[in-house]
Amino acid sequence: MAHTGNTRNTTSMRRTLRREAPSTIGLLADERDFAAMRRYRTFTFDDHTVYLQQVEGLLKILAAQGMHTTVALFDPEEYAEYCAESGLAPDAPASRSRFTAEVAAAGATVAYTGQPIDTLIPLLVSRAVRQATWEYATVLLADLGECADCGQDIGRAAFDRASHLLMRTLETAGPGTHHLVCSTPTENEQLLAVLHTERGATGPARLESGEGAEFVTVLAVGVALESHGGLVLRTSNPGTPDRVHGWRLTRGSLVPLTAGEVFSAYCTDADTGDPVSPESGVEYCAGFDIGADEPEAHH
To answer: What is the pLDDT of residues 113-122, one digit of tens each?
Structure first.
């Protein structure tokens, strides 16, 4: 009897530990990635829709057991490269598990909170795009080196200046729910960053640290490269129309657009150039003066 009791106690403890051990699932979000994995014998799924249903079922089971689960985007090309570099056999579940853990540790993930799979996938893809944009912008800033004239680290100075510009924008915008979009062209990419924040009647705006850092980094690229990017701010307050303001990024500074320029930019299809009907309940306003007390960019 004592032996049975010890066995039960051990099993109970293991179950307790299992509930406290987080889980990570690598998700093949689209048909093309799913098709690429079918070349592996140990990957036994043959229908993407069924696969997604099974993943969603597993997520629900783990959640019902009280386990914290995150979902990471599984990229077959990166997986093949990872296996080649690590000397792992790609046609093995253990290799896929190890790769998923590596991706989750360094890449974009979404915590599962019961959301449907068709809600989870766009969120995960968006998070992955944000991560890739931030990594590209960070490397670009780091590679700029020091200014030949003043000796400043160009990337660091641009980041400080972009941080100041963002905080001055939010301070001047006042209370409300703020949605900002920054567009910065580079030689190889059109970088885009989005930031959501709220500011009460008193106190500073509340920023999510990761999203704020990503936004500032993309803005800093425009500052450092003195590229012709732009910034749009949409502010919402209960009982009043949304206000949209805009600025042109010129030589490392944000220059206010006129109300007409804001209207034109917001009501034009970026891909086709065709006009888009203005939204009802939205006021298109000139960009406001952010202030001249900015940290100077490198010389």
So the answer is: 999 999 999 9
